[in-house]
Amino acid sequence: MTYLEFEKPLADLEGKAEELRALARKGEGVDLEKEAAALDRKAEDMLRDLYKSLDPWRKTLVARHPERPHCKDYVEALFTEYTPLAGDRAFGEDHAVMGGLARFRDAPCVVIGHEKGNDTRTRLEHNFGMARPEGYRKAIRLMDLADRFRLPVITLVDTPGAYPGKGAEERGQSEAIARATEKCLRIGVPLVSVIIGEGGSGGAVAFATASRIAMLEHSIYSVISPEGCASILWKDAEKMREAAHALKLTAQDLKKLDVIDRIIPEPMGGAQRAPTETIAAVGDAIAEMLAELDGMKPADIVRDRRQKFLAMGSKALA
Question: Which of 30, 37, 161, 189 is the most exposed place for a label (fewest CB within 10 A)?
Fold first, then answer.
């Protein structure tokens, strides 16, 4: 288990408990197992105290935890007959975005998501979940396919933001993001989105302009990263904690603002401590969101989705 900076006291407790168990297994002390159990109880209480009132910056750290389930984990656990479709038919394949045809609880669908990778090799391969223009154009192609065959679209968002490299800008990064966002608004099939980790900037909006949006309890969704915001506003990236508070990027803040529709509870200690339980909860939330849209006509789906986002602007101006 990788511990975050604010979890260091917890790491010490759990480490001591494991050391005592190792000694007990060697037969070096009769009461060591009891002492280890007592430390486990203290660690459990500490974990509960740490996570019951996480501030926005700590939630940002949890959302970025490398051991949280990633898009590939959700696809493998929740979908069957997954057939990946690659390329944007214009430039090439972008491994930061995965997507294709699948079945969700035996119903056909299209699934699209950001994949960050889970070790050095795969993180480099997937560009840490930062999509290039061809990734967004691939998503547009898949949404067109879903619209043509009347298949619901499920998106799983987990990205620090769109890739800001020179090549991406030369190939029309902002235009690709804008067209993906527009496509989300235009398709006449149910589109549901779950923020499973980071929902960074336009790179996330391009997948999350959905009929229904859910966030995991400790995920984040914002127009810019706290570090980027701090660099712009205060010319000091070290003020990221203040920026995280100001951005209102937590699921709890965004639910109050009606930017998202539901919050999916995470196990105590975050999704990284119980990935199987977290993935199951996300599956249930997706099923509930799709059920809300079941039976709606294409024109009604488009109208409902557009009204959702127009209402956000109205509330902001009120």
Answer: 30
How high is the pLDDT of residue 315? 60
Biggest distance spanned by C-alpha atoms of the chain: 72
What count of other Cβ atoms lies within 10 Å of the Cβ of residue 179? 17
- Assigned token pair, 156: 């799983």
C-alpha 212/C-alpha 288 separation (Å) is 10
The DSSP annotation for 251-318 comes to HHHHHHTTSSSEEE---TT-GGG-HHHHHHHHHHHHHHHHHHHTT--HHHHHHHHHHHHHHHHHHHH-
User: In sequence order, what DSSP letters do the residues of 15-50 get, joined into one string?
Assistant: HHHHHHHHHHHTTS-SSHHHHHHHHHHHHHHHHHHH
Q: Which residue has the tokens 């993935």?
A: 279
**Predicted confidence (pLDDT) per residue in 259-315, tens digit:** 999 999 999 999 999 999 999 999 999 999 999 999 999 999 999 999 999 888 666
Q: In angstroms, rounded to a whole number, what is the distance separating the alpha carbons of residues 182 and 176?
A: 10
